[in-house]
Design brief:
- The protein has a single domain, classed as 2-Layer Sandwich (Beta Polymerase, domain 2).
- Helices cover about 20% and strands about 25% of the residues.
- Strand 3 and strand 4 form a beta hairpin.
- The longest helix is centred in the last third of the chain and has 12 residues.
- The protein starts with a helix and ends with a strand.
- The mean pLDDT is about 90.
Length: about 170
């Protein structure tokens, strides 16, 4: 299935919470200016609807997206109010992919954990939690995996200021 066929299937299944789709424009060979957005097509999803949509993508016999191959988060704009959580699904049997994105406000960033749907979400959620400050409600093991427990701030936020020292050790 291509991206549009996947979107049509989700619509036919009554999927809720899809706010829109972003499809990169193809390059016009005669256009010397703006090339449009590069990258993969994705669906923008309401955070409250994410888990139901993940179950639908995994369990539907035509979609069979049995793998969460990537879960990441980004701070897309310095000084911006939002964070993005990105999910990349794969159907090995059907040979198609789907990217989903949720937008969260930086203040109080919170979304349900996807670990009930895909166990592989554990590590990506833990990393996004400690590096960007996103709370994944219901995560079975929210301990840090990269930073010490007493680290202050979220290093992957664009407004993060790296400390000059940590416990008397210079960081410059």
């Amino acid at each position: 299935m291509d991206f549009q066929e996947i979107c049509d299937r989700l619509t036919a299944l009554g999927a809720r919470g899809v706010l829109g789709a972003d499809v990169p424009r193809e390059k016009d060979p005669d256009d010397k200016g703006d090339l449009g957005r590069a990258g993969q097509s994705f669906l923008l999803v309401e955070p409250a609807a994410l888990i139901d949509l993940l179950f639908l993508c995994r369990d539907d016999s035509e979609l069979e997206m049995s793998q969460l191959v990537d879960l990441s988060a980004t701070d897309p704009v310095k000084g911006g109010p939002d964070l993005w959580v990105n999910y990349e699904l794969l159907s090995i049997s059907k040979r198609h992919r789907l990217a989903l994105k949720c937008v969260l406000p930086k203040e109080g960033a919170s979304i349900a954990s996807a670990t009930a749907v895909f166990a592989s979400a554990r590590w990506g959620e833990r990393e996004a939690s400690e590096m960007l400050g996103i709370d994944f409600d219901g995560h079975p093991d929210p301990r840090n995996i990269l930073l010490p427990d007493d680290w202050e701030g979220y290093p992957l936020r664009k407004d993060y200021e790296f400390p000059t020292e940590y416990h008397g050790i210079s960081c410059v």
